[in-house]
């Protein structure tokens, strides 16, 4: 009990934030993005914005068509660029975009986090049947990320 008695509350701050954006779900990505931008601006810290093209969501015909895959890559790249512009317009000074392909949870934990080195990852929660749930990719990040993870609900 002495530890608690001697304890003084101090400001807990993060030094680098990574926000995961779902290219197919603006509704869940928006509050996570707003939280990450707000925190990055308030503490004047770098923000990484990542989205992962889920090639597993494409059917066999789409993956065999170079034009379809190229078009989808261009759409997702434009999406990330738009989020970067929005963050900068909001006042975040240092923004780094990340675009990758594969299973988002695995790519973010295994590749993006080691490269960007955030101490906080922000993810959204998806809406299913009028309930907010943590999707399997966000759950993977929460479980395996070596840093703090915040799930922001709408």
TrEMBL record:
It holds the Pfam family Usp. This is UspA domain-containing protein. CDD domains: USP-like (cd00293). Belongs to the universal stress protein A family. The lineage of its organism: Bacteria, Bacillati, Bacillota, Bacilli, Lactobacillales. Residues 14-153 form the UspA domain.
């Amino acid at each position: 009990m002495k530890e608690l008695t001697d304890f003084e509350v101090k400001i807990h701050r993060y030094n680098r934030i990574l926000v995961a954006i779902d290219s197919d779900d603006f509704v869940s990505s928006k509050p996570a993005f707003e939280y990450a931008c707000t925190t990055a601006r308030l503490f004047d810290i770098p923000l990484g914005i990542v989205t992962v093209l889920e090639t597993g969501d494409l059917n066999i015909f789409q993956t065999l068509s170079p034009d379809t895959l190229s078009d989808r890559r261009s759409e997702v790249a434009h999406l990330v660029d738009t989020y970067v512009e929005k963050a900068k317009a909001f006042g975040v000074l240092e923004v780094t975009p990340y675009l990758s392909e594969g299973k988002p949870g695995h790519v973010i934990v295994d590749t993006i986090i080691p490269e960007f080195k955030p101490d906080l990852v922000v993810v959204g929660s998806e809406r299913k049947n009028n309930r907010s749930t943590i999707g399997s990719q966000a759950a993977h990040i929460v479980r395996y990320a070596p840093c703090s993870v915040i799930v922001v609900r709408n």
